[in-house]
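JOB MANIFEST
job_type = single_chain_structure
chain_count = 1
residues = 280
[input]
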Amino acid sequence: MHAHRSESISVPRGPATASKPGSGTPAAFHAANGPPGHWSFGLSDDPMATCRPGTLDARYAIRLARTTDHRDAARRLMCERYQWRGYATDAAQDDSAGITLVASELGRIAATVTVGADSPKGLAVESLYADEVAKLRREGARLCEFTRLAVDRAGDSLKLLGALFHVAYLCARRQHDATHLLVEVNPRHVRFYMRMLGFRIAGPQRTCERVDAPAVMLALSLDHAEEQIAQCGGRPELAQTKRSLYPFFFAAGSEDGIIARLVGADRASGRWGHPEAICA
């Protein structure tokens, strides 16, 4: 399957319009503006932990992969999914810089993604799309990328994917002040990302040597994502009539609580904690 030709990407000239972190109690997840009670967010060193008797009734959990156990669990899932697809598994062993998130369902690691920020060292997508990425930078884009995404289809994949993407979006938007998100995907997945999340093609089909498979670079305006979260987030019933992943995101009003719990925002200054504390 060949991807469509590249489309133009609209890049805003002004700063990102993300809302500012609040000062609510980080653990107060049952507040009106908190995420659903069946989700938990934490920094536990146990990668399989979700909830325990007497705590939140959490079926699902998303946490930062801070420890060796967290990262090993993410790598195992990556290897399993890469092998299932027939991809080379060397890339799954790569300890790329960035913020790695893991999502679990009933204590089982079911999804992972790594959020990478633009830096003097560049982005992973530049190994295939250096010219296209350079053009976006010249146009004023502040870039992040999602890499090493793997989802175990045995679980509730759309719900997990929506929740994981929302937390990863918050890392890109709130911590790194990004305006655009880049991903490399197999051509067979291009339509899903475009239809369900609003990505646009930003680079032609090429062969990714890391996984020995074809790839297409896509870009997502985070202004568009923010608008969709405001309209659809926390409203899964919309998925019955709207072909979109955004209804499986959390409600926009829950974002400050999620951020505070995951990264330990400094409530006195309203700033994020030090990135070094949450990097994989």
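[summary]
Residues 1-10, 12-34, 43-57, 265-280 have pLDDT under 50 and may be disordered.
Strands lie at 39-42, 60-64, 99-105, 108-117, 143-151, 180-185, 200-208, 213-221.
exit_status = 0
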